[in-house]
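Final report, closing paragraph on structural work. Over the funding period we assembled a curated collection of sequence-structure pairs, and we close with a single example.
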Amino acid sequence: MVAEGDRPRQPSENPCARAWVDSEAAGSGWREAILSPSALPPLIREMAPDPGKTAAMFLLEAYLLPLACFAAVVLLIASVRILREYERAVVFTLGRFQRVKGPGLVLLIPFIQEMVRVDLRIQVIEIPSQDVISHDNVSMKVDAVLYFNVVDPERAIIKVQDFLPATNMLAQTTLRAVLGQHELDEMLSERKKLNADVQSILDSATETWGIKVSNVEIRTVELTDNMVRAIAKQAEAERDRRAKVIHAEAEFQASQTLVNAAKILGSVPAAMQLRYLQTLAEIGAEQNSTVVFPMPIDIMKPFLDLLEKADRSTPARANGADRAQLPIASEVAH
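Its predicted structure, as stored:
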């Protein structure tokens, strides 16, 4: 006979076993509630055509369609480009050049085609100040402005790595080379000619890049203080020279006029007398206390003729005395 205390307990009477059985029942109920169609939201339950499908299949069908739509939108955005009127697109297919497209709507194949935008408008580059030595060994600093635009997008992208800095560097070297062949006076007075020379050289050099250089303008020529003072002295000397030349030309013209007037007055003696009288009238009009009576040169002409004859006879007498002394000197020698 077994005692009541020694009788084995049933699993339902064991506390640990009862707790384990309860947890298993609760877990199975939770899984059935989650995986059953009645546990899904109403919208998903309506989308499910077959109530016998599992919740995983419903979730896959519910989120697959939005993901597909999102991917389609992303691919559409990646394949559509809009170019403005002044823009062109250089299209590459798997790395090889295909063609130039634009302006307007451009369609690309995603992950296969790519494009590079090119601006066709005129671009302005400010050439920094360059140290230049002119042909007459004058040091200065010169800066300029460059105007250019792209005329062939294919060559501008394929032939040169980056056409903007390449054009800038070429403009700097060309500016120094061209200005070094001219003197300072030419740089200051013939800027249009220098601009045309630089522009033609740059245009021919950048033609292979698909770039057209439309204009080059030399903006500033900076000289040292010593050169500024030297140029000021040169300009002052040039002004003095011009003033003296103008004064000499005025004197020459005045002398020619006086000679012509003397010839006219000498041809008519009465004209000289009238000139004397006019001079007296001008002197009397100024209320002077001194009266001048001009004496005609004709009165003194006989005396002047006598003096001229005496001057001529004096050298003749001296020559005769020398000739008389020559025989006497020869006899003494013998």
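The chain has ten helices and eight strands. The first helix runs from residue 15 to 35. We thank the funder for supporting this effort.
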